[in-house]
């Protein structure tokens, strides 16, 4: 008879149900232990003394100064990196020149340098111990243990984020649209703002998002360069460390939970971008 | 004439400006500081540098950083592969949440991760208390360092392997089956070799990141010289002692390790592209 | 080996890919499943291979029920449309794959595997390419390697999905002749899927014309040309 119902055999390109369940279970357990547990701890510890404890911690002058510091650094560092990223991507994606591969390697370099080593480099370059440092001191310009040093350290560690996101996207898009705009009589800047920028805006936002998360969260490089002077050069992450080392657990975790919220917001926006505009992002570009 | 040799002609404007901005910022932010470190090394001289690195404390710090990074990255290699496979191939409740959460270590500041892990695994923390009866101490031991580095390196393998699994041709798996291969044979002999370049790249990226990691480690490590003191911490200690030369010496050693790993990553990619046309 | 399909149907969700179809393929025949895309011809071929399983109906090989037989146990030599060669293996390793994948007690010795692979590479007239990788081969060479790989498992039948689809016209003519020769030498029951009526008519002993999940007509090429059973067959096979 033709209407005999057959037992459904397992599809050819997947694993047996038991193996599947086991792997899914393993993956969930792994993520729960290594990702969700630490994240939950941040909020649990912050709320150890209830909302009041958190509010009290946030109204500490040191905490507020650290928040201000972190925000000011991000406000300057992120746009600078965006400008750099766009410039580098324009030069690399739209033109052919010698040494391009080497330039890309150099841009990626900060990713593989330890943040502490990055901080060390700036101290050696601008610190009181170097000839440049002595000259700067004589002219009353402070870089190390001051705002410019923290800014440079932040720029170093976030350097590749925007460029790395834009370069593949702009290479993918080619240069025909820009060439078309030019033949229609548009000026160079007009072409950039009306043709190029709209094409890369989501990728740019994606890069900026990641750059911002790192800029606000950088610890190692900033810890070395800033001198961690409370109320002056301490950023949120370095203030977290100081609170924690002084056994001010609630204060440390309250500040940490603000940073964690920021991280969650970043992930949320990033996921939204990936779902909505997957085809316009380098990270999720499918050919 | 010379410019024409260096750069192919193009109708698009703005090469000078964009290249100029890129090069200027690259020089100020990246090249100048690296030059300062290497210049410092030259001023100190190779013999002196070697003398400062070749001490027991520095060696054990460098060895610890490398060993812990290696162990954590191997761990991530295995679990990252499982996670990537599960996320691409299976549909289950909460998949998107987990997929988004994989990037948490990229987004969460390392210091926050560090204090959170410490609170979890400290003798009075929830995980620490649970593991104490089994005789497992994690916080303030080398195991704690592995743990922090597993956290830091977790996204690298997943995110490099995931797109390659997505692009896998189902035909290949079906071909293997029609030739009589069981599923496990197909996974081992057909799929795993295809993923190898991506796995190696992810592993190398995680390793490079973990070797230099500082923020997430120092809280949970205990920082006992010769035992749980990582190389970046030793740099910070030398700087706090105003011993810039010794700090520079360790910094140069670490920079050389970074360069070597960068080279290895590039070599893997060139090799895999030549061999099977995959990135 | 003869193949018998009994009221075979396949649904993907609510989509009917195959209405109940019945067909008898005599042993040693070279037959073609001809139809436009979406006609169900590839689904039918994949069910024969054990890559898909029918929603209802039966498949019999030499009278024995093979409906639920797993793909690994069917021993159907399958040539994929884009060949699905293993990129990280040499041609030799590709062809030897099916032999090496056997359980240890059924596996031939390495020397025997070497002999068989050499014989197959001679059969496809590419004796010297064993050490090359698939991306170093031309399209026509890849197709022949895929054929050799499928033959290596000593299949009970040969199934080909658009075997000439990805090739240019000149190579296509050449390889048609090659497939005919291999079929005649091995005597294997051979089924190939194509959307190209000229190819079907020229190569196959028996042509099965399909449309929208149904078999429209089964017959020798000349019969189908002379007496198309339906309007669809007439227009589709018109030159």
Automatic annotation (TrEMBL), chain A:
Name listed for the protein in its UniProt record: Sulfate transport system permease protein
Matching SUPFAM superfamilies: MetI-like
Summary of subunit composition and partner proteins: The complex is composed of two ATP-binding proteins (CysA), two transmembrane proteins (CysT and CysW) and a solute-binding protein (CysP).
InterPro entries per record: CysW_permease, MetI-like, MetI-like_sf, Sulph_transpt2
Leader sequence residues: none
Lineage, highest ranks first: Bacteria, Pseudomonadati, Pseudomonadota, Alphaproteobacteria, Rhodobacterales
Membrane-protein topology: Multi-pass membrane protein
UniProt GO MF annotations: ABC-type sulfate transporter activity
Naturally occurring in which organism (per UniProt): Rhodovulum kholense
Function text: Part of the ABC transporter complex CysAWTP (TC 3.A.1.6.1) involved in sulfate/thiosulfate import. Probably responsible for the translocation of the substrate across the membrane.
PANTHER family: SULFATE TRANSPORT SYSTEM PERMEASE PROTEIN, SULFATE TRANSPORT SYSTEM PERMEASE PROTEIN CYSW
Spans traversing the lipid bilayer: 20-48, 69-93, 113-136, 143-163, 247-269
Top-level taxon of origin: Bacteria
Keyword Repeat listed: no
Record key words, sorted: Membrane, Sulfate transport, Transmembrane, Transmembrane helix, Transport
ABC transmembrane type-1 domain boundaries: 67-274
GO annotation, cellular component aspect: plasma membrane
Presence of the UniProt keyword Isomerase in the record: no
Location(s), subcellular: Cell membrane
From TrEMBL, chain B:
Oligomer status and interactors: The complex is composed of two ATP-binding proteins (CysA), two transmembrane proteins (CysT and CysW) and a solute-binding protein (CysP).
Native source species: Rhodovulum kholense
Keywords: Membrane, Sulfate transport, Transmembrane, Transmembrane helix, Transport
Protein purpose: Part of the ABC transporter complex CysAWTP (TC 3.A.1.6.1) involved in sulfate/thiosulfate import. Probably responsible for the translocation of the substrate across the membrane. Part of the ABC transporter complex (TC 3.A.1.6.1) involved in sulfate/thiosulfate import.
Subcellular location: Cell membrane
Domain ABC transmembrane type-1: 62-265
Family according to the record: Belongs to the binding-protein-dependent transport system permease family. CysTW subfamily.
A GO term, aspect molecular function: ABC-type sulfate transporter activity
Name of the featured protein: Sulfate transport system permease protein CysT
NCBIfam families given in the database record: 3a0106s02 (TIGR00969), permease_CysT (TIGR02139)
A Pfam cross-reference name: BPD_transp_1
Superkingdom: Bacteria
PROSITE patterns according to UniProt: ABC_TM1
Automatic annotation (TrEMBL), chain C:
Gene Ontology CC: ATP-binding cassette (ABC) transporter complex
Gene Ontology BP terms: quaternary ammonium group transport
Calcium keyword on record: no
Residue span(s) of domain ABC transporter: 3-237
UniProt entry keywords in alphabetical sequence: ATP-binding, Nucleotide-binding, Sulfate transport, Translocase, Transport
GO molecular function, one term: ATP binding
Top-rank taxon: Bacteria
InterPro entries the UniProt entry points to: AAA+_ATPase, ABC_SmlMolc_Importer, ABC_transporter-like_ATP-bd, ABC_transporter-like_CS, P-loop_NTPase, Sulph_transpt1
Family matches, as PANTHER family: SPERMIDINE/PUTRESCINE IMPORT ATP-BINDING PROTEIN POTA, SPERMIDINE_PUTRESCINE IMPORT ATP-BINDING PROTEIN POTA
Protein's recorded name: Sulfate transport system ATP-binding protein
Organism: Rhodovulum kholense
């Amino acid at each position: 008879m033709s209407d005999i119902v057959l037992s459904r055999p397992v599809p050819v390109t997947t694993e047996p149900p038991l193996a599947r369940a086991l792997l899914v279970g393993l993956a969930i357990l792994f993520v729960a232990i290594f990702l969700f547990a630490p994240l939950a701890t941040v909020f649990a510890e912050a709320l150890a003394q209830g909302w009041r404890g958190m509010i009290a911690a946030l109204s500490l002058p040191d905490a507020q100064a650290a928040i201000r510091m972190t925000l000011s650094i991000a406000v300057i560092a992120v746009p600078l990196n965006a400008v750099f990223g766009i410039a580098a991507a324009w030069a690399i994606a739209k033109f052919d020149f010698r040494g391009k591969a080497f330039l890309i390697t150099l841009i990626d370099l900060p990713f593989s340098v330890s943040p502490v080593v990055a901080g060390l480099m700036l101290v050696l370059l601008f610190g009181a111990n170097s000839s440049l440092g002595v000259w700067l001191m004589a002219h009353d310009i402070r870089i190390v243990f001051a705002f410019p040093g923290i800014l440079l350290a932040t720029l170093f560690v976030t350097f590749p984020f925007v460029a790395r996101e834009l370069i593949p996207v702009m290479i993918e898009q080619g240069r025909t649209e820009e060439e078309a705009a030019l033949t229609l009589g548009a000026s160079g800047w007009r072409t950039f703002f009306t043709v190029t920028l709209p094409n890369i805006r989501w990728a740019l936002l994606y890069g900026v998002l990641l750059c911002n998360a790192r800029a606000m969260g950088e610890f190692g490089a900033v810890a070395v360069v800033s001198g961690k002077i409370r109320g002056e050069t301490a950023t949120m992450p370095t203030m977290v460390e100081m609170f924690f080392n002084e056994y001010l657990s609630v204060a440390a975790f309250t500040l940490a939970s603000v940073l964690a919220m920021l991280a969650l917001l970043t992930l949320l926006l990033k996921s939204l971008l990936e779902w909505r505009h997957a085809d316009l992002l380098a990270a999720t570009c499918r050919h | 004439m010379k410019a024409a040799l260096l750069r192919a002609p193009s109708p698009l404007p703005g090469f000078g400006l964009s290249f100029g901005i890129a090069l200027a910022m690259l020089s100020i932010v990246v090249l100048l500081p690296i030059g300062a470190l290497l210049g410092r090394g030259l001023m100190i001289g190779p013999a002196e540098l070697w003398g400062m690195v070749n001490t027991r404390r520095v060696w054990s710090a460098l060895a610890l950083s490398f060993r812990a990074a290696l162990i954590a990255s191997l761990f991530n290699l295995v679990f990252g592969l499982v996670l990537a496979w599960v996320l691409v191939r299976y549909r289950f409740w909460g998949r998107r949440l987990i997929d988004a959460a994989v990037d948490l270590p990229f987004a969460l500041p390392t210091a926050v991760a560090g204090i959170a892990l410490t609170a979890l695994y400290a003798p009075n923390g929830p995980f620490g208390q649970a593991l104490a009866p089994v005789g497992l101490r994690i916080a303030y031991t080398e195991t704690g360092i592995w743990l922090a580095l597993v956290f830091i390196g977790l996204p690298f393998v997943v995110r490099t392997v995931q797109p390659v699994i997505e692009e896998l041709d189902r035909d290949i798996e079906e071909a293997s089956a029609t030739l009589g291969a069981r599923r496990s044979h197909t996974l081992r002999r057909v799929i795993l070799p295809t993923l190898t370049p991506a796995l190696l790249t992810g592993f190398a990226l995680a390793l490079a990141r973990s070797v230099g990691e500082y923020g997430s480690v120092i809280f949970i490590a205990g920082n006992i010289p010769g035992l749980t003191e990582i190389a970046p911490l030793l740099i910070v200690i030398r700087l706090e002692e105003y011993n810039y030369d010794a700090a520079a010496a360790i910094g140069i050693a670490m920079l050389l390790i970074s360069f070597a790993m960068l080279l290895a990553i590039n070599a893997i990619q060139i090799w895999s592209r030549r061999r099977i046309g995959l990135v | 080996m003869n193949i018998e399909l009994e009221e075979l149907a396949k649904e993907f969700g609510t989509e009917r890919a195959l209405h109940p179809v019945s067909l008898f393929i005599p042993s040693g025949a070279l037959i073609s499943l001809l139809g436009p895309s979406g006609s169900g011809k590839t689904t039918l071929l994949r069910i024969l291979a054990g890559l898909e399983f029918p929603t209802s109906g039966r498949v019999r090989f030499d009278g024995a029920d093979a409906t639920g037989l797993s793909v690994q146990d069917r021993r159907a030599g399958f040539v994929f449309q884009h060949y699905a060669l293993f990129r990280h293996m040499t041609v030799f390793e590709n062809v030897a794959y099916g032999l090496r994948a056997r359980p240890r007690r059924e596996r031939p010795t390495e020397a025997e595997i070497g002999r068989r692979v050499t014989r197959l590479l001679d059969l496809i007239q590419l004796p010297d390419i064993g050490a090359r990788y698939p991306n170093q081969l031309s399209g026509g060479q890849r197709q022949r390697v895929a054929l050799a790989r499928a033959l290596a498992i000593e299949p009970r039948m040969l199934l080909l999905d658009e075997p000439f689809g990805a090739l240019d016209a000149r190579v296509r003519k050449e390889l048609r002749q090659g497939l005919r020769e291999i079929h005649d030498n091995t005597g294997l029951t051979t089924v190939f899927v194509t959307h190209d009526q000229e190819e079907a008519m020229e190569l196959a002993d028996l042509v099965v014309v399909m449309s929208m999940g149904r078999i429209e007509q089964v017959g020798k090429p000349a019969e189908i040309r002379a007496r198309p059973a339906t309007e669809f067959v007439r227009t589709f096979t018109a030159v």
